[in-house]
Amino acid sequence: MRILITVIILIFIGYSCSKNEKLASEHFTKAKKYFENNELVKASLEIDSAIFLDTLNYEYTLLKAKIYSKSNQYEDAIELLTSPLTSNFKPDTVNYLIGASYYNLGCFYSNQNNNERNEIDSYMKSIEYFNSTIKLNPEYFLAYIYKSHAFHNIENYEEALISLNNALTIFPDSMNLVCYRGVEKFALGDLKGALIDLNKSIESGKMDSLDMSSAYRYKGLVLADLNKLNEAINSMTKALTYYDTNEFLFANRADLYRRVGQKDKACADYRKAAELGMVSIYEVIKEYCN
User: Fold this and answer.
1) pTM of the model
2) Is 68 in contact with 76 (CB distance < 8 Å)?
């Protein structure tokens, strides 16, 4: 009789676990769809339900961490990823996600006027995790991208360039990498080299709108340094066709209009930059436009 009872209990437990796993999977599927549609509150509720039903599935943990990060809860994402990292679950992906969270934390601190130390520390930690990602998986494309961005943001342009060149040996056809390399060459003062890379990436037609905008913007900055101001203005205008809510583009073009003596156009762009969030530009407006 005892044996029979034990068997029944085990069958019941197995059935219950199987049912919970199925329900958890359904919540996970819903959470992924909500996440892809940027419905983060709904995604969070669904993934919490999945985790409650199946606490051992680290795929659910990874999605929860992504939701945290997209909700600007970077430290929560990092803490949550500790468990799959120590369990060696998808170590390249987990290292990348931790690196991305530290990178985004660095971007957050960069907008705080008195947090330079935290900003640099966050970027350096992101680089550490991106290096681990690349060591585990040399073909992890995004790790190279954000590693170079992190170096750029701490003004270590040489290391940013090295990271991009290393990536290009693996992904030689990536025009995004060529574009970013042009940006680093510009930062290092190689204007002609920067222009070659930026033009190549633009002419490829293989980049999305944001990267096309960035390529035209930096091309405009290069041309401005070469004192080709009208061409630089045209390039900034082209950049705005790809990203017309970028305050930096309006501020850059305003500076160029100012240099060629077109005050009305310069002030219109300065005011547009201010409207889009660049509050600091009001000092220029106050001094130049009134």
Assistant:
1) 0.88
2) yes
How far is the C-alpha of 245 from the C-alpha of 134, rounded, in Å?
Answer: 34
Q: Looking at the domain that runs over 90-172, which CATH code has it been given? A: 1.25.40.10
Q: Exposed e or buried b for every residue in 91-102, given b needs 16+ CB within 10 A? A: bbbbbbbbbbbb
Torsion of CA 260, 264, 268, 270, to 10 degrees: 50
pLDDT, tens digit, 9 for 90 and up, residues 37-84? 999 999 999 999 999 999 889 999 999 999 999 999 999 999 999 999
The DSSP annotation for 177-208 comes to HHHHHHHHHHHTT-HHHHHHHHHHHHHHT-S-
Element (H, E) at 167: helix 157-170
Angle CA 233–236–238, to nearest 5:
110
CA distance 271 to 96: 39
How many Cβ atoms from other residues are within 10 Å of residue 259's Cβ?
Answer: 14
- CA gap 186, 183 in Å, rounded: 5
